[in-house]
Amino acid sequence: MQNIFANISENNKCKLLKTLEANTYYYKKNEEISIKNDNTIGVILSGLIEIIKIDYDGNRTLVEEYVEDEVFGNMFTPIQSNDESIMVRDDSKIIFFDFEEILDSSLDKSYYIQFLKNILLIINEKLQEKNERLEILTKKSIRNKLLEYFRIMAKKHGSKYVYLPFNFTDLAAYLVIDRSAMAREMKYLKEEGFIEIKGKRITLLYDL
Amino acid sequence: MQNIFANISENNKCKLLKTLEANTYYYKKNEEISIKNDNTIGVILSGLIEIIKIDYDGNRTLVEEYVEDEVFGNMFTPIQSNDESIMVRDDSKIIFFDFEEILDSSLDKSYYIQFLKNILLIINEKLQEKNERLEILTKKSIRNKLLEYFRIMAKKHGSKYVYLPFNFTDLAAYLVIDRSAMAREMKYLKEEGFIEIKGKRITLLYDL
DNA sequence: AATGCATTGTTGCATTTGCAACATTTTAGA
DNA sequence: TCTAAAATGTTGCAAATGCAACAATGCATT
């Protein structure tokens, strides 16, 4: 994962923050972060935050989670509606940039060029994540969504093993399918000898 | 839509192309373009190309279409499988860059900085397109997908009118739903007084 | 170890959606 | 202008999926 300050010295980083009017904020656990501006880019220096969705029953599902060095904001994952919010799960320290500000700057220092390249890499990473999810969501059946998800994950790890990064409930939300329907389909996949499941490790028994 | 050469003089553009080893190719109508490298970025100088998907029956559906000044490549819309291909619809002139090459360059000219900023804006535009489609595809019912699509389109035009940029068959493919099921749901929406349809113009009759 | 909460597994049933087939209308090209 | 192909509208029916409800299991906190 690309670090936004990669290959920039501490000294130049300070200059950059000053020029781009970036501000650092501190949040306590369980605070809610509200981002006013669609162009705001948050960088987590320390801590843990998550975007959660609360449905009409009050059930919380995880939409996304961000840890140290990760970048978030409406540019990357828009807060879709008023049932979604950004919550601080561990005390956190966050720097906020403004994307317009970054682009409008007429700096021509080499550390500024490096910063632009870093952001380009980060946005590209985000784009690839979206592409992955779209590849999955453009499959019509639950079975094909699961198989596409497995294919992508297995490819990433370069093996026939898939290690789920979240629990089944959150996986179903990510795939936009009903959890129980997913469990049913997984049972069929097991019965038909396509996969084996041991905890969070899934083994693919077919040719990749 | 952002132009990749915006605010770069013809002269500097030439230097850029040379430094980044960008090559220009000419394609005839109905040729197929094959992109070897995942990092390749194509810029259409003139002409028209499209990504099409051919299903087992030989039916072609439009995945995406690119015209003059637009940018394409696997970074932006990955060719998912061997049933998708990039076809040239009108004679076209295309420049190819390599994303790695662009980032690895140690140029520090102002026109290079401008070029990086332009690409940043383009990738950001692509990211927003993906976010939009994801907002739609994360809705569970056909009705909610349609309403979300209408909401986004109406917001863009700043009015209660939605002008479909493609035909209903392609719209169904974009929303990943069955065409006839979509037609049925649209009929219900009309009957229930939510929308009015006249050709490619849809009027939203509810509060936005 | 005990308690309570979250996660997972399972199943019947209702509903939605996809699919197929066909009629009708529109569009593009000769 | 004519013709063929593409797009659209419509419907019955089958299949897939969501939903609800509940049991079983796992997990964390005291």
List keywords for this structure.
homodimer; 208 residues; alpha+beta; Jelly Rolls; Arc Repressor Mutant, subunit A; six-stranded antiparallel sheet; three-stranded antiparallel sheet; 6 helices; 9 strands; 39% helix; DNA-binding
Task: Give a verbal description of the structure.
2 copies of one chain form a homodimer. Chain A is built from 6 helices and 9 strands; from the N terminus they run αββββββαααβααββ. The first copy, chain A, is an alpha+beta fold and 208 residues long. Chain A has 2 domains: 126 residues, Sandwich (Jelly Rolls), CATH 2.60.120.10; 65 residues, Arc Repressor Mutant, subunit A (Orthogonal Bundle). In chain A, strands 1, 2, 3, 4, 5 and 6 form a 6-stranded antiparallel sheet that branches. The first copy, chain A, starts with 9 loop residues before the first helix and ends with a strand. In chain A, 19% of the residues are buried. The model of chain A has no long low-confidence stretch (mean pLDDT 93). Chains A and B meet through α3 of A and α3 of B. Chain A binds a DNA duplex (30 and 30 nucleotides) through α6.
